[in-house]
Amino acid sequence: MQAEQEDRFQEFVRARWSHLVRTAYLLTGDAHHAEDLTQTALAKAYRSWRRVSGSENPEAYVRRMLVTCNSDRFRKRRVKESLTDAPPERAGRDEAVARVEERGVLLGALAQLPPRQRAVVVMRYWEDLSEAEVAEMLGCSPGTVKSQASKGLAKLRTYPGLAQVMDRAPQGGTK
Predict the structure, then answer these.
(1) How many angstroms separate the CA atoms of 89 and 63, rounded?
(2) I need a surface site. Which of 17, 63, 86, 106 has the fewest CB within 10 A?
């Protein structure tokens, strides 16, 4: 890779690392898996940086790599992970602890979705991408995005405790 391309890649990583890790965290439900997933996607992006940086939206290209790498993770390892509802001991409840618990409920709910529904819900509602953008990213039709989003949201509505978390969330969501 030429020095100029190398500099552009490093600048991209510095600017977008946190955002990509947050997206990966929502896809995986685990901070360590999220960092690994982000590093894997960025390693792939590095190998083909000339093509990635030449695209209309390099970040969307790398987000697509995140989704694909996450899907590959499920194909390669069929180990089911289960998140606990709450830590074993609870200290006094302050606002920071409440936010962590609320995120835990949200992540637990997302973990119950199949990988495709989870990817659609995260990209559509967390990343705020249009149905067409999500469809292009996942390589499916907008109708599939609509149906997967509908099924995913219906399943999330049945998750215990999620309705209370959303009722307590400030307007604009829990980002």
Answers:
(1) 36
(2) 86
